[in-house]
Amino acid sequence: xxxxxxxxxxxxxxxxxxxxxxxxxxxxxxxxxxxxxxxxxxxxxxxxxxxxxxxxxxxxxxxxxxxxxxxxxxxxxxxxxxxxxxxxxxxxxxxxxxxxxxxxxxxxxxxxxxxxxxxxxxxxxxxxxxxxxxxxxxxxxxxxxxxxxxxxxxxxxxxxxxxxxxxxxxxxxxxxxxxxxxxxxxxxxxxxxxxxxxxxxxxxxxxxxxxxxxxxxxxxxxxxxxxxxxxxxxxxxxxxxxxxxxxxxxxxxxxxxxxxxxxxxxxxxxxxxxxxxxxxxxxxxxx
Length: 287
Fold this sequence. Notes:
With about 290 residues, the protein is α/β, with parallel strands linked by helices.
C-alpha cells in the first residue's frame, strides 16, 4: 500500500509540473501573438521599402515635329510718295489693281519710310517736287541695296540734289533748261523707252514740255536722248540701269491735260497713258 501511495504522489507531482509548463508556454505564446502584428507590419514596410528599383524601360526617341516653313513674302507692291503735292493717283491704283499690281500712295514722310522697308515693297516711285530731299534719296538707296527698285521722275529742281545723286547713284542732273517742244525743234521720240513706243501717250503730241534738266552718268544701262534739230545737241532724259534697279524719267508736263506726270489722275485717261504706265510697272517688276 505504501508503494502505491508513493506512485500516486509522484504522478500528482508530475501532473502539477506539466500543468505549470503548459501554463507558462501558453503565456509565452500569447505574449508573442500580441507583439507580432505590429512588428510584422513594420518589418513588411521595411521589406517594401527595400524592394529593388525597377529597371527603367528604354523609351523610343521622341519624334521631332517638322518645323513649319514660313510662307515667303512676295515682293510685288509699288509705293508712291506724294509728299505735300496735290497730285492724286487713285485712278492709277484702280487700274493697277485690275492688273494684279498693288500700289500704296502716302503723303507723310514717316509713313513713307515705314512702307519703304516693308518686306513686300518691290518698287518705289519718287516724283519730282519741292519736298524732295537728300534724306529721302539716302533712304531709297538703302532700299535699293536691299533688293528694291526705284523710279525717279526728276526735273530741274533736282539740280540742287545733283551732288547727292552722284554720290549715291552715280547720276548727275545737269542744267535747268526746259526742253520745250515748239514747232518740232526737239524730236518727239524717244522720250520714254522703246518698249513703250507702241502707246499713244501725250509725249507724242505737239503740246508738251519736259520738266527741265538732263542726266549725265557713266553707268551701263539703257539711255535715251532728246535731240535738238537746230544745233545737233542731245540731252539724256531717260536712263535705266542694266538690272532695272534704278530708272530716271524726266517729268513731262502737258498743256492739255495740264499735268506734270503722265499717269496721275489728271492725265492717265489721255490716249494710252494708262496702258503705258501699267506696261512700265510690269517691266520694272519683271512680269
